C-alpha cells in the first residue's frame, strides 16, 4: 500500500480557526499582517491520505513495521489530522499541519476546549468566518410531504360481455324445458339424466346420490354472472335445486330483455377474473345484523292464568316452582310438604311437626291451629272416616274408624290404657277417655 505525500499549505497561512486548541494557538507564531485564505480541502494533498470508493482513508507506516490503516473519514482534512495524531503518539512531529491555521474546517464539530479565564481568545481570518457562516446557513431540504390517506387502488375493468341474448338463442328453449321439469321435483336427483342429455355435466361429490356438482355448458351464459355471484359458496357450479332454478330464471330474463352476457368459455379464458372477484368481495357490504322482535306481553296475561299450588300439574304442562319470597310478596299461601323418605314408624314415633306457617296479614284474624294426634290417619280416596292403628307387641292393633279426628284420637288413648300404657293424645284426661270408650277398655 503506497502512502500519498502531498504538498502542505503555505507557512504564511492565517491563525488557527475557532475549533483549533487554544494552547497551540498561543504557542504558534503570530500571523503576518497580509495573509491569504487557505486552499479548500479538495485542492490539497496530505501525507498518508488517499481516496478509495468515495471515502478518505489513512495508512501509516513506522520504521520496521507494516503499513497500518487508521480508518476512513468523510473529508481529507480529518484524515490528515488523524495521520498527524498517530505520529505525535510515537513522538514524531506532524507533517500535514505543522503550523496553526493550515488545517481545513472539519465537517463535524470538534469538542469545545475547557474554559480558561486566562486563555487568549483565538484569532480567525475573514475568509474562515465567511466559510463557517456559509456552512451553517445551508438549509436542510424539507422532507417530502406524504398524503394522509393513499388513494385506493384502481378497480379491475369489468368483464367483457360480447354476446347479446334473445328468444332465438339456442339455450333459451332448453332452460325453459328444464325449469318446467324442476317444478315437479323435490331436488335435483330426478332431473340428473335430463341435465346430462342437454349438455350439462354432473360430477358426484359425496356418497349420497343427491350430492353432485353441475357444470353449465360452455356456450351457455356464465353461471357466476347470472346466479353464482349471489352465493358465498359454489359460485361456479350449482349444487341445489334453488341455485339451478335461479340460474334458469336468470337466463330467461336475459332472453326476454336482450341483455348482454358472456359464456362459460369466456369466463374460463378471462385472466382478470380472479382479481375482479377479489376486489368485488372486499367491496361487498356486510348484511346488517337484525335482532328478532320480541312481542310485548299483555299486562293482564299473567293475571289470567289460574293460581296453582307449587308443582301442581295443569293439563299436560307443569308449572315452574316459585320462590318462597315471591309467594309471600304476592300474598299467596303455601304449605310444607312432608318428606317422602320418612318411614311409617318414623311418622308414628316422631313428635308432631310444627304447624305450617303462612304469611300473616294484620287485618285478618290469626288462623286456629288444627291439633295433630298420634296413630290417627285422615280419610283418603278409598275411605271417608278417620282410622287408627297402634303398633304394640310386634303387631298392629286398630282402635276402629271414627267420624272425627278427636274421636279417633280418644279411641287410640283408650286402646293404650287397656294395654296398661300411657295416653298420648289426651294425657291427664283418662277419665273422659274411659267414659267415651268403655267397651275398648273393658
Secondary structure layout:
Blueprint lengths: L21 H6 L21 E4 L2 E6 L7 E6 L2 H14 L36 H11 L26 E2 L5 H13 L9 H6 L3 E4 L7 E4 L7 H4 L14 H17 L2 E2 L2 H6 L3 H11 L17 H4 L8 E2 L2 E2 L5 H7 L13 H6 L26 E2 L8 E3 L1 E3 L2 E3 L3 E2 L2 H14 L11 H7 L1 H4 L1
Antiparallel strand pairs: 1-2, 2-3, 4-7, 5-6, 8-9, 10-11, 11-14, 12-13
Question: Can you give a write-up of this model?
Answer:
α4 (170-182) packs antiparallel against α7 and α13 packs across α14. 17% of the residues are buried. The chain contains 15 helices and 14 strands. It is an alpha+beta fold and 442 residues long. 29% of the residues lie in helices and 10% in strands.
Can I get a quick summary?
Residues 92-161, 263-374 are annotated as: Disordered. With 442 residues, the protein is an alpha+beta fold.
- Mean pLDDT across all residues, rounded? 72
How many DSSP H or I helices? 15
Output the radius of gyration.
58 Å
Structural category? alpha+beta
Q: How many beta strands in the DSSP annotation?
A: 14
Strand content: 5-15%
Organism: Pelagomonas calceolata
Family: Belongs to the AP2/ERF transcription factor family. ERF subfamily.
Region (Disordered): 92-161, 263-374
Biased composition (Low complexity): 104-124
